[in-house]
Every structure is written in structure tokens, then in C-alpha cells.
Amino acid sequence: MSTITTKPNKTAALALVQALMAGTLKHFPNGSFTLGNTAYTTATLVQVLQNLEQALVAVNAAQASVKDAMTALHSVEANVGPVIRDYKRFVLAAFSTATQQLVDFGLQAPKARTPLGTEKRAAATAKLRATRAARGTTSRKQKAAVKGNVTGVVVTPVTTPPAASPVPVPAAPAPAATAPSGAPK
Q1: Which residue among 7, 84, 150, 165 is buried most deeply as judged by most CB within 10 Å?
Q2: CA-to-CA distance for 63 and 65, rounded, in angstroms?
């Protein structure tokens, strides 16, 4: 039966090194060890373990600063990305045919679009029509002309009593007519 050994993560490795140092100092304060054909005293063994501990702590600190730096980089890229995109468009528009000036900016001139040949254009048109027929795609006018027929459905009209007719409001009396000012009374 084989045993599977896994490499501990940094936190577990650091905890193991610290526990080894504490256990060595507690149980072998004045010990002498021969490990792998090398003689160690308690002080030299603890020094070796402390070196590993310091290296693990330095790696953790460096990785934390890298995470902070990457977060800052992503923030700056999010703000500067649209500016760069717009500036590149401006430069391409300003120097669209001047390749040397575009090279000075580190850009390439856009390639000219080559039209399709007659055979390729005919094949593309045939494929387009076949796809529209297969999908049943039609134009807007053709879609408007399509009306559906419903069969097998009985429509029952809703009958409600007619609403009461509104009561007429009497009209206001018309103003009395007056005679023109130049007429005799």
C-alpha cells in the first residue's frame, strides 16, 4: 500500500516550521543531532529552521504586495483602456495611409478590404438564400402580409347590460340680444 504525500500550503508549512522550532527548544535545549551526514546542535538546527521561516514570511509578504499591485494595475487599466482605444482610433484616422507615421506610434495601417470574386460572391449569395429558405426568414413586408387562421376555437361574445345613458345637462340661457347703438329705441 502506497502513501500519498502532499506538499503543504504556505500557512501549514510555516506553522510546521514554527512548531518544530518550539518543540526542539523545549525538548532538546542542548541537543546534538546528525541529520543526513551533517551534525547539528540545537542552536544550528533552530537557525536553519528560522531561515526557512523568514523565507516563508518574505514570500507571503511579496505575494500580498503583488496582489495589491495587480489590483492597482487593473484599476488603472480600467480607467486608461478607453482612452488608449480612442487615441488609437484618432491616430489611425489622422494617419490612415501614412504607414511610417503609424509605425512611429507602434500601429499598423488597416489592410484594404479586397472584394469577393464573382465565383465566391455567387456562392455566398446562393448560401444566403438557402439559409433564409431553410429558416423561413422573410422580409418585413412579407411578415406583415402573413395572417394566421384559427380553427376549432369558439368565440363567445361577452354580453353586458348597456351602460346607463348620461343625463342631459340643461344648457345655459343665451344672452339677450341688444339693439345696435345707432338704432332708435
Answers
A1: 84
A2: 5
Collapsed DSSP state (helix, strand, coil) of residue 39: strand
Amino acid sitting at position 105: F
Rounded-to-integer distance, Cα 92 and Cα 101, Å? 10
Helix (H, G, I), strand (E, B) or coil at 15: helix
The answer to whether the CB of 8 falls within 8 A of the CB of 52 is: no
Please report the DSSP string for 47-101 in residue order: HHHHHHHHHHHHHHHHHHHHHHHHHHHHHHHHHHHHHHHHHHHHHHHHTSS-HHH
CA atoms of 121 and 138, how far apart (whole Å): 21
| Integer Cα distance of 133 and 123 in angstroms | 15
- The C-alpha cell at 140 is 418585413
Using CA atoms, how far apart are residues 65 and 84, in angstroms rounded to an integer? 27
